[in-house]
Structure formats: C-alpha cells, structure tokens
Amino acid sequence: MRKEPGFVIELTIPMDVHEWFVHVRNAGSGAVVWQDWFDYLGYSDDDSESELAGQMNEDIAAVVRLLLSASALRVLPATGLFGVASAQACIEGEWTPLASVL
Q1: Contacts for 52 with CB less than 8 Å, ≥ 6 apart
Q2: Among 92, 91, 43, which Cα is nearest to 100's?
Q3: What is the chain's mean pLDDT, rounded?
Q4: Contact at 8 Å (CB) between 34 and 89?
Q5: How many CB atoms lie within 10 A of CB 89?
Q6: Are 97 and 70 in contact (CB under 8 A)?
Q7: CA-CA distance, 57 to 47, in Å (whole number)?
Q8: pLDDT per residue over 47-75, tens digit each?
Q9: Across 29-33, average pLDDT
Q10: With contact defined as beta carbons under 8 Å apart, do 78 and 84 qualify?
Q11: Nearest 5 degrees, angle CA 8-CA 62-CA 73?
Q12: What is the Cα–Cα distance from 37 to 93, expressed in whole angstroms?
C-alpha cells in the first residue's frame, strides 16, 4: 500500500498463525523506517482460536481504515530510553500513532 510519497506500507499476514506484521519502508531505498508486530496467542486462556482470529481481523481492518483515511503519514525518529521510532497518521488534522490504534 503506497500512501504517502516516500513511503510504502506493507502488511504481512502469515497463514495459520495468529500474528501479523506492518512495515513502513522508504520508497526510494526500501529501508524499513518503522515496524511493529502483533500476536494473539498466550495472553488469555479465555479466548477461543476463532475469537482470536476475529480480533486479529478487526485489528487489521482498523489499521487499514486508518491508513486509507489518513491525509498524511510521518515517521518520527527514535527517542527515549528504548529508542523506538513512531509512525503516525494524520486524521482530520490530528497526528495519531499507528500503534495506538490497537
């Protein structure tokens, strides 16, 4: 998914595993400038596999909706103790971290 000049957004959804990955790449160099990973097993014994799959599908749909509705995307450099970069989407004039959608 190409949203912003200069960025390519990739979602990777493995078969038969309740996890997925998102990468934001520099369109020119192909270098990953931000990434995150989401998994759905081992956090609650109360959820069935079908419930986990449903939650995963809802989360992926939420991220795609956010990206498609964004007027801009930016990646802020790593800061803080752990040095983690932040990808943000501009929604109605407000910058929203992609990771906060989930």
Answers
A1: 18, 40, 41
A2: 91
A3: 84
A4: no
A5: 23
A6: no
A7: 15
A8: 788 888 888 899 999 888 888 888 888 88
A9: 91
A10: yes
A11: 35
A12: 27
